[in-house]
Specification:
Largest sheet of chain A: 6 strands, mixed
Oligomer: heterodimer
Number of helices of chain B: 17
Radius of gyration of chain A: 26 Å
Distance between the termini of chain A: 78 Å
Helix content of chain A: 40-55%
Distance between the termini of chain B: 44 Å
Largest interface: A-B, 57 and 42 residues
Chain lengths: 545, 321
C-alpha cells in the first residue's frame, strides 16, 4: 500500500510539473485542404453568440482560403495588461490582434521592439497587397482627409506602420458633446429647449423646483467615469472651451500652444460645474457612477424618467428598449461643436510571431478583405439576408440620403452570429443614420432611434458651422527620446491637473475654484512641476506636425 | 535476520550529518517523498524566478531576453521616487496594512475563541459555514455588491433615504474618509471565517486536562479563555503576526483598483495600483519589478525586525527563526 501511494505521489509530482509548461496561442500550419490556419486575438462581445460558427468568420474563411482560430482576450483596459504579460513572459501571440485600443505609446513600444510587425512594405505596395486600402482612401476621401490618414498611420518616430487602422468619417462619432433633454418635462412646464448657458441653468432650476419625478428628480445627470465619449466633464467644459482630457492642448491662434487646464475659460467651466454641484442640480454620484448604474438611472425600470437633462451617450448609457429613453430629444450645443478629422484608429496588428511563421501575407490579405465595402458592411452590420438586405426602390435614410442597404435586425441590441462585435480594420464611410433604410419590423424602437440620431446629427452640423473651434490641436506625437526624457514630468503634470480638477469641485485641501489665490497656487504648482519644459516639448512636436 | 553483535556496535558509532540524513531518510522515505511536490513548487516558483530580479536594473525587452537587455542602473528607482506623490503611495499602502493588522488580524482570533467557547455544536457549524462562505465570492462581485448597496440613488442606501426621508449628502463610494473603512470591513466580512480556521484548529489542540485543572481552581469560562486558550494559541498568533508584518507593503492592487474613483484617489492609490498602471499596463516590466523589489526589501527588513523583537520579548520562544 505504501509503495502504491508513493508511486501515485511521484506521478502527481511529475504531471504537476509537466502542467507548468507554457501554452501557445499560435495556430500556424495548414489544414488538410490547404487552408492557412490563422489565430485572431479578440475581446468577446456579449451580443455575439458564437465566433467560430459565425457568418463573418465563414465569409472571411471562404474568401481568403483560411481557417480562423479565435483567442479570447479580456475587454477594456485589461487587454493592455494581458498583452503586456504575454509579451513579458515570452508567450506566442496570436497572428492577428483584432480591435485592441492600446494607445500610441504602447503601440510604438511594441512596434519598435518587434512584437508588432512593421506593415510598411504592404502599404507601399499600392497596386498589390494594399490596393483595396488605397483605392478606397483615394476615391472616397477628400485630399485633406487623405493627408490626415497618410500622416496618422505612420509612427512619428520611426515612420513605420504598425497597425491596420479603422477609418471612420461618419458624424456618428462626432456627437460627444450634445446633451439630451426631457421633452415631456419641457412640455409640462411650458419651457423651451435652452440655447445658452444661462437659459440652461434656468431650465435646470425649473426642473429642480417642479420635482416632476418626486424625490428622484435629477435636473442634470451624467458621470465623470462614463466612457466612450459619455463623460459629463466633456459636455460641460465644452460649453466654455474646447476640452479633450486626452489632448489638453489648444492653439492660441499664433501657432503657440497652451495647456487648456491653465486657461480662464477652463476655470469658468469648472466654476459652472461647481455651481451645479453646490445647488444640487447635479447628483452627488457624478464622480462615482459607472456605465451600469448610469443605465439604471437614465432608463429606470419603473417606466418614468428621473432626469431632466442627460449628458451621456444616449445609446451606450441607456437600456435601448426602454420607453423612457424616448422621452429625450437632442439639445443643440451652443458650446464647441467639434468637427473631428477623419478618425484613424490603429487597433489591429499583425504580430511578429505570425511573420516568423510565414503567415503574414495571408493575415494582411484577411485584413484587407475586411477593408472592402462588403467586408466593412459585414463587420459593422452582419450578413446580407440575415442582418440587412437591398433597400427598397427610392428609399431614403433617416438623414434623407439615398439608402444603400436596409437593416432588418437592430444593429445594437440583438444577439447574433453574423458579426464579431468589434469594428476594426474597416472603412466606414457612413453610419446607419446616413446610409441605411430601417425596417420597421427590425425592432419596436430601432427606426425611432435612427430618427433621433439623425436629428442630433442635423443639429450638430448646424452648430459646427457656427462653433467649430479653431484652436484644436491634433494628437501630439513625441519621439521615443522626448518621451523618455520627460516621462516623470509628463506623468506628474497629467496626474496633478486631473486630480486638481476633482479637488476644485470638491473643495479638497482648501482648493476653491472661485478663489484667485487658490487658482494661482494651482498654476504655480504646475510651473514648479515643469509645465514650461513640457510645453516646449509639445510645441516642438506641434511644429514638426 | 537477527543483527550480529558487530553490526549492532557499528550502529551505535557516532554518525556524520550525511549519514544521519540517510538514516532518517530511509526510516521515513514516504514523508520525504510527500515533501517533493511542495519543495519543487517553492523551488520553481519562488527561487528560479529570482534570476529575473536583475531586470529591475535593466531596460527589459523580452525579445533581447533577461541577459541581453541593457543595464540602466537605478533609473527605475529614480523614476518611482520622482513621482510627486510617492510618499503618499507608501503611506496609503502602509495605512491599509496597519489598519488590517489592528482590526483585521484580531477579529478572526476573537471569532475563533467564540467558536471554541460555544458548546452548541449545531450552532457552531452553522456559524462557521456562514462566515466561511463569503471567502468564495470574487473581489469583482464584492465590489459590485458594495457599489450596489451604497449607491445613493439606485442602491439600498438610496431606498432607505427615501423611505425615511433622510437626504444623503455624500456618496460614500467617493469619500476619502470612508475608503479605508470600506476596504477593511468588507475584507473582514469576506475573510473572517476563512482566517479563523487556523486558530480554531490550534484551539482544538488545547488539552482538556488544562481546562479541568483550571475548573478545579475555580476559574470562570472567561478566565479559562484568558489563561488557557490564549496562551496555547499564542505561538500561532505570533507567527501569523510576524508574517503579516512581513507583507506590510504588499497590498494587492485588485481591490483598491476596483474601488478607486477620482474622488478617493488620494487615499486609494497605493503602490501596487500605481505599479499596475505605470508598469504592467504600459508594458514597463522593469519598472514594476524594481518597485516590487523595493517593496520586498522593506518587507524583509520589517519581518526580521518584528521577529527579533518577538524573540527578545519571549525569550526566543515565539520567533520564527
Amino acid at each position: 500500500m505504501k509503495k502504491f501511494l508513493a508511486i501515485v505521489l511521484a506521478l502527481t509530482t511529475v504531471l504537476g510539473l509537466c502542467a507548468c509548461g507554457s501554452g501557445t496561442n499560435s495556430a500556424g500550419g495548414t489544414t488538410e485542404d490547404g487552408k492557412t490556419i490563422l489565430s485572431i486575438g479578440i475581446a468577446p462581445n456579449a451580443l455575439v453568440m458564437d465566433l467560430d460558427n459565425n457568418e463573418l468568420t465563414k465569409w472571411v474563411e471562404e474568401q481568403c482560403n483560411v481557417e480562423l482560430k479565435f483567442v479570447e482576450y479580456a475587454g477594456g483596459t485589461d487587454v493592455a495588461t494581458q498583452i503586456s504579460t504575454q509579451i513579458a513572459s515570452n508567450q506566442v501571440l496570436p497572428d492577428i490582434l483584432y480591435g485592441f485600443n492600446l494607445g500610441e505609446d504602447v503601440i510604438a513600444k511594441y512596434g519598435e521592439e518587434e512584437y508588432f510587425m512593421d506593415l510598411t512594405p504592404y502599404f507601399e505596395d499600392r497596386e498589390g497587397a494594399s490596393k483595396v486600402f488605397w483605392d478606397r482612401i483615394t476615391t472616397e476621401l477628400t485630399e485633406y482627409e487623405q493627408d490626415v490618414v497618410d500622416r496618422k498611420i505612420h509612427d512619428a518616430d520611426t515612420g513605420a506602420i504598425y497597425a491596420v487602422p479603422c477609418i471612420e468619417t461618419s458624424t456618428t462619432d462626432k456627437m460627444d458633446f450634445q446633451m439630451w433633454i426631457n421633452q415631456k418635462w419641457l412640455d409640462q412646464l411650458d419651457l423651451e429647449i435652452p440655447t445658452s448657458t444661462e437659459e440652461f441653468y434656468n431650465v435646470l432650476k425649473a426642473f429642480q423646483k417642479a420635482k416632476l419625478a418626486g424625490d428622484r428628480t435629477i435636473p442634470l445627470y451624467g458621470s465623470t467615469r462614463a466612457n466612450l465619449g459619455g463623460n459629463i466633464m466633456n459636455f460641460l467644459m465644452n460649453l466654455f472651451c474646447y476640452y479633450d482630457a486626452d489632448r489638453p492642448w489648444i492653439d492660441k491662434g499664433d501657432g503657440k500652444l497652451q495647456a487648456v487646464y491653465t486657461t480662464d475659460e477652463y476655470r469658468e467651466g469648472l466654476k459652472f460645474f461647481k455651481k451645479l454641484l453646490d445647488e444640487n442640480l447635479l447628483p452627488i454620484t457624478v464622480f462615482t457612477d459607472t456605465n451600469t448604474s448610469m443605465k439604471q438611472v437614465i432608463t429606470p425600470r419603473e417606466g418614468q424618467a428621473w432626469c431632466g437633462v442627460v449628458a451621456a451617450h444616449l445609446t451606450l448609457h441607456t437600456i435601448v428598449d426602454s420607453e423612457v429613453m424616448y422621452d429625450y430629444v437632442p439639445m443643440q450645443t451652443w458650446g464647441c461643436a467639434v468637427k473631428t478629422d477623419v478618425t484613424v484608429d490603429p487597433t489591429t496588428f499583425i504580430t511578429m510571431d505570425c511573420y516568423d511563421g510565414g503567415r503574414a501575407d495571408k493575415a494582411f490579405e484577411v485584413l484587407m478583405k475586411l477593408f472592402t465595402y462588403e467586408g466593412s458592411l459585414r463587420v459593422r452590420y452582419g450578413a446580407e439576408g440575415i442582418n440587412w438586405v437591398k433597400p427598397d426602390e427610392g428609399a431614403k435614410s433617416a438623414q434623407g440620403l439615398d439608402a444603400q442597404y436596409k437593416l432588418i435586425i437592430d444593429a445594437i441590441s440583438i444577439q447574433n452570429t453574423s458579426v464579431w462585435g468589434k469594428i476594426a480594420s474597416t472603412f466606414n464611410r457612413y453610419a446607419e443614420g446616413e446610409e441605411a433604410q430601417s425596417d420597421p419590423n427590425a425592432s419596436k424602437y430601432f427606426a425611432t432611434r435612427l430618427e433621433m440620431h439623425a436629428e442630433s446629427y442635423r443639429l450638430f452640423q448646424e452648430a459646427a458651422e457656427k462653433n467649430n473651434p479653431k484652436n484644436i490641436v491634433p494628437p501630439l506625437i513625441f519621439t521615443t527620446e522626448e518621451k523618455n526624457d520627460t516621462l516623470m514630468t509628463r506623468t506628474n503634470i497629467n496626474d496633478y491637473w486631473r486630480k486638481a480638477q476633482t479637488d476644485f469641485l470638491n473643495n479638497v485641501d482648501g482648493m476653491d475654484i472661485n478663489s484667485d489665490k487658490s487658482w494661482n497656487e494651482y498654476l504655480k504648482k504646475l510651473d514648479d512641476m515643469g509645465l514650461q519644459t513640457y510645453l516646449e516639448l509639445a510645441q516642438k512636436a506641434y511644429d514638426r506636425q | 535476520m537477527a543483527k550480529t553483535a558487530a553490526m549492532a556496535v557499528q550502529d551505535l558509532r557516532p554518525k556524520t550529518g550525511i549519514q544521519l540524513f540517510w538514516v532518517r531518510f530511509k526510516k521515513c522515505w514516504q514523508l520525504h517523498l510527500m515533501m517533493l511536490l511542495p519543495v519543487a513548487y517553492v523551488f520553481l516558483f519562488s527561487y528560479v524566478p529570482m534570476y529575473g530580479i536583475q531586470i529591475a536594473f535593466k531596460e527589459y525587452s523580452p525579445r533581447k531576453g533577461i541577459m541581453g537587455s541593457p543595464w540602466v542602473g537605478l533609473e527605475h528607482l529614480k523614476g518611482f521616487f520622482g513621482y510627486y506623490k510617492w510618499t503618499n503611495l507608501v503611506w496609503n499602502t502602509m495605512a491599509l496594512s496597519l489598519y488590517s493588522i489592528c482590526v483585521g488580524f484580531p477579529i478572526p482570533i476573537i471569532f475563533a475563541l467564540i467558536m471554541h467557547v460555544n458548546t452548541q455544536k449545531g450552532l457552531k457549524k452553522v456559524a462557521q459555514n456562514i462566515t466561511v462562505m463569503p471567502n468564495y465570492i470574487s473581489l469583482v462581485i464584492l465590489i459590485g455588491m458594495i457599489n450596489t448597496i451604497l449607491n445613493p440613488m439606485t442602491g439600498v442606501i438610496g431606498y432607505f433615504s427615501r423611505v425615511f426621508n433622510i437626504p444623503v449628502t455624500e456618496d460614500i463610494r467617493g469619500s476619502e474618509e470612508a475608503f479605508r473603512h470600506l476596504y477593511q470591513w468588507s475584507g473582514i466580512w469576506q475573510g473572517m471565517g476563512w482566517s479563523s480556521i487556523m486558530y480554531i484548529s490550534a484551539l482544538s489542540g488545547v488539552p482538556d486536562e488544562l481546562h479541568e485543572a483550571a475548573k478545579l481552581d475555580g476559574a470562570t469560562r472567561l478566565r479559562r479563555v484568558w489563561s488557557v486558550d490564549i496562551p496555547t494559541i499564542l505561538p500561532t498568533v505570533a507567527l501569523m503576526l510576524i508574517m503579516r508584518f512581513g507583507s506590510i507593503l504588499s497590498v494587492g492592487y485588485q481591490k483598491a483598483w476596483l474601488m478607486q474613483n477620482s474622488q478617493n484617489i488620494d487615499v486609494s492609490e497605493i503602490i501596487s495600483t500605481y505599479v499596475y498602471k505605470q508598469g504592467i499596463q504600459q508594458g514597463e516590466m522593469s519598472f514594476g519589478t524594481c518597485v516590487g523589489l523595493l517593496q520586498s526589501a522593506i518587507n524583509v527588513t520589517l519581518l526580521c525586525t518584528v521577529n527579533w523583537i518577538t524573540n527578545v520579548l519571549t525569550d526566543n520562544e515565539m520567533g520564527m527563526f
